[in-house]
Amino acid sequence: MLKTIQRNKAVWTVSAHLQGYAYDSKGGFFLENRFVVPASPPDAPLLPQIVRILDTRLDHASRKRFPKWWRLIDRISNRSKGEKAVQHPKRGRRIVLGLVNWVLGMVLLLPGLMEPDEMPFLLVVGIIGFLIGLVTLWCHQKILLAVLSLLAGSILTFGGVVSPDELGCFLPLGIFLLVIGILALCTRRKKKSSAEKAAKKLLSQQAGKPTAEVVFTENGLEIPGQPPVPYQDFEAIFETEDLIAPIFHNQIVLLKKEELPNDAGHLLSFLAEHAELVQA
User: Fold this and answer.
1) Cβ 221 vs Cβ 215: under 8 Å
2) Rounded distance, CA 226 to CA 233, Å?
């Protein structure tokens, strides 16, 4: 805190410190938020949380890019936008409901495909139930969806090829299921492996580096050796139980909560006012 005292036309400057604030004045004073936070290299036990941050970043970017699609998915699967990971019992119920919708949808869809003119109601209801089950399982249990889709797709495709006159109507559905099964497997593996690979690479790059200090001010984030980063350039600030991670310009800064200043609650409130704070 810098306080200027004017007495007999002479000026003295007195220095002091107060957590989170800086003062400077001439004949008065003003208040500015300023938080100095150490940025030490992350430890290996924090790897799962870093993976979650990177996964959440992908999901967050996808939601920003395709908001209408994600609103539809959230509505069908009964998930509110920005909701944190659901508890295991609730997630288990959704998986069961998704499985029931998928199976019942298939049961109604198959006879509807065989006689679409005579059973249009079954066809429509089957399509709706099947799609609800597909989207729910895609969101909560991709492996189960992949197994069901590949199994059913293989049977329907084989039947359509062997008996095109009787079962040829099932061939498009069989091919569609095979594609869904392959996509469910590939997207799950790719997302998991890429996030883990990136997190491990980040840990190895940070290992052995000296602890630096970053500064959050009203204007943005100050990093040693780099120009200040304004908050409007942030993708978001991702938070876990032990980490705070601002991401900007394809760069991530990992800050341990245990190293935050004593007024950490005020810092988090300050950051939430200037940037988007996302729970990972």
Assistant:
1) yes
2) 14
Each residue of 11-67: pLDDT tens digit?
A: 222 223 334 444 444 444 445 678 888 888 888 889 999 999 998 998 888 888 888
Q: Is the domain covering 2-45+211-279 a CATH 1.10.10 domain?
A: no
Tokens of 57: 């970043």
Q: How many angstroms separate the CA atoms of 199 and 120, rounded?
A: 51
Distance CA 234, CA 246 (A): 7
Place of tokens 């400057």: 13
C-alpha–C-alpha distance, residues 43 and 203, integer Å: 8
Of residues 269, 249, 247, 255, the one with CA closest to residue 214: 255
pLDDT tens column, 208-263 = 788 888 999 988 999 988 899 999 999 999 999 999 999 999 899 999 988 887 76
Task: Provide CATH 2.30.29 ranges for the chain.
Answer: 2-45+211-279
CB 260 within 8 A of CB 271: no
Distance, in Å, from the CA atom of 270 to the CA atom of 245, rounded to the nearest integer, reads 15
Mutual angle of helices 67-76 and 47-65, in 10-degree steps: 110
* Tokens of residue 188, six digits: 């799950």
The reported pTM is 0.51
Distance in Å from the first CA to the final CA of the chain: 35
Between CA 218 and CA 106 the distance in angstroms is 57
Per DSSP, which regions of the chain are E strands? 2-7, 10-15, 21-24, 30-39, 212-217, 221-222, 234-239, 243-248, 251-252, 255-256, 277-279
Q: Which one-letter DSSP state was computed for residue 42?
A: P
